[in-house]
Specification:
The complex is a heterotrimer. Chain A is mainly alpha-helical. Helices cover about 75% and strands about 0% of the residues of chain A. In chain A, helix 3 packs parallel to helix 16 and helix 4 packs across helix 16. The chains are: A mainly alpha, B mainly beta, C mainly alpha. Chain B: Keywords: Biotin.
Chain lengths: ~375, ~70, ~45
């Protein structure tokens, strides 16, 4: 009898409470969404497994000893992984559309308006100012930037905000179209844009160098993200270090994604996740997305007042930096209005500019709030 | 006589017509894969396919002539 | 001025400032790059 009792206590059942079971259900739902619905599976699957692991009674997240805690501490608390992901994104991104039509940079900035609307929304709901900044940045639709900012300002919000950012990114094709339809007329959606000029190799090489200098001088706090981003892009465009560039966008990216996903998931034990705050974050997150879409379109309308060659306001919505989902949505909406309207490449301009815009917005938050 | 030009860079995913086919305006001619998305290319006007200049799987850039109509 | 308002104003103006500045610099660098390439082409001829 005593033997059995000893076995029972050495097992973990005693340490569970109802919240853990709820988290199992949530984790399994994410697994289901990732596998059956294809919701950002590369991230959601590791995150879901991290959630499951941390809600099983073990010492896996104990500070100073647990395995996942070490991943989390060295990867995210030290803010190493998000810049490494930016290195990969830089190596993957073709800035041709931005260089050919630099005006799209402004659209990438315009969509960041959603970040600030949400920032005030979060303050009104009673989040403190650091948390509000992190919730706001969800509207930028950039997972690594959200995690980066959370690690510096509000580590306790990291997991929730990352999940919100990634799940809303997967929902971009659902969230954006109604807002886009509401804010544009059929005729405006039909606007065809002149095809982009060819961009030479030298211009593409100059781009990351100029960008890193300009941004670091104006917003030094964005240096970690933008430095890696531009470095990755220079490796890509230089054409002489294909091996490094390919490693950054494939192997390195995949490796850090594994560590990022599972340890972000591990920041969500039931005690942290099952609070009313979480509902607030998810509501604000969707508000952030809608506002960012609306601000992007609004700015495109505003620019059209001054431009001789009109831009299609739909591409303003692509300033939300979910690459390339937001650009695809803009393209699809455009071709629904006019079959022969090909907006994809035009929408890639604001789309990649949005990545820069969100990183700059995060840098601005850091410079004021740090 | 008209050419169907490629509107954006990508990969030819499927060619839906053969030489000699009669097509009407807005028929799907070629499906182009760009950014992991299938983009149908539509005929600009009625016509008969005279030449097809690309193969399935071929990489194309903006401005390339894909199909010649007459 | 409250911290929230400061954050907002510096943030939004910062983002637009950076992007406008970047816009100008990119245009200039494009011109430079195209000019340099033209020069090179001429030398090759």
């Amino acid at each position: 009898m005593e033997l059995l009792q000893g076995m029972w206590t050495s097992m973990a059942f005693d340490n569970l409470y109802w919240g853990n079971f709820v988290m199992w259900v949530i984790a399994l739902t994410f697994v289901y969404l990732a596998i059956n619905k294809g919701f950002e599976p590369l991230l959601l699957l590791p995150i879901a497994f991290g959630i499951l692991l941390v809600n099983l009674p073990s010492e896996i997240m104990t500070p100073g000893e647990g395995l996942l805690w070490r991943f989390y501490h060295y990867g995210e608390e030290w803010a190493i992984i998000p810049p490494l992901i930016f290195l990969g994104i830089g190596a993957m991104t073709d800035f041709g559309p931005v260089i050919a039509n630099p005006k799209t940079l402004l659209l990438g900035a315009g969509a960041q308006g959603g970040v600030y609307v949400t920032f005030f929304g979060a303050l009104a709901l009673g989040f403190n100012i650091d948390q509000a900044a992190v919730i706001g940045i969800i509207g930028g639709a950039d997972g690594p930037t959200t995690i980066f900012l959370a690690s510096k300002l509000a580590p306790e919000m990291m997991g929730i905000c990352a999940v919100a950012a990634y799940s809303y990114m997967a929902l971009v094709p659902v969230i954006q179209p109604p807002v886009m339809k509401l804010l544009t007329t059929e005729a405006q959606r039909k606007i065809r844009m002149k095809s982009l000029r060819k961009v030479s190799k030298l211009e593409k090489i100059f781009f990351p160098i100029i960008t890193v200098i300009v941004i670091t001088l104006v917003v030094p706090d964005a240096a970690a993200l933008m430095g890696m981003f531009c470095f990755g892009n220079l490796m890509r465009e230089s054409g002489v270090v294909d091996r490094l560039s390919l490693t950054a966008q494939n192997e390195l990216m995949n490796i850090v994604t594994i560590f990022l996903g599972i340890s972000v998931g591990a920041t969500m034990p039931a005690e942290v996740f099952l609070t009313t705050k979480v509902i607030g974050v998810f509501i604000l997150g969707s508000v952030a997305f809608c506002c960012a879409t609306a601000c992007g379109i609004g700015l495109a309308h505003l620019m059209n007042l001054f431009l001789k060659e009109k831009i299609n306001p739909l591409i303003g919505a692509a300033g939300v930096s979910a690459v390339p989902m937001a650009a695809r949505v803009a393209h699809k909406m455009g071709s629904e209005a006019d079959k022969k309207n090909y907006l994809l490449m035009h929408a890639m301009g604001p789309n990649v500019a949005g990545v820069i815009g969100t990183a700059v917005a995060a840098g601005m938050f850091l410079s004021v709030l740090k | 006589m008209a050419n169907i030009e490629c509107p954006m860079s990508g990969k030819v995913w499927k060619i839906l017509v053969k030489v000699g086919d009669t097509i009407a305006e807005d028929d799907e001619v070629i499906i182009l894969e760009a950014l992991k998305m299938e983009n149908p290319i539509f005929a600009p006007e009625d016509g008969v396919i005279k030449e097809i200049n690309v193969k399935e799987g071929q990489q194309v850039t903006e401005g390339d002539v894909l199909v010649v109509l007459e | 001025m409250s911290l929230a308002l400061t954050t907002f104003i510096s943030g939004i103006s910062g983002v637009f400032l950076v992007m406008t500045f970047l816009l100008i610099m990119i245009k200039l660098s494009s011109k430079l790059a195209i000019a340099l390439e033209k020069k090179q082409e001429k030398q090759e001829l």
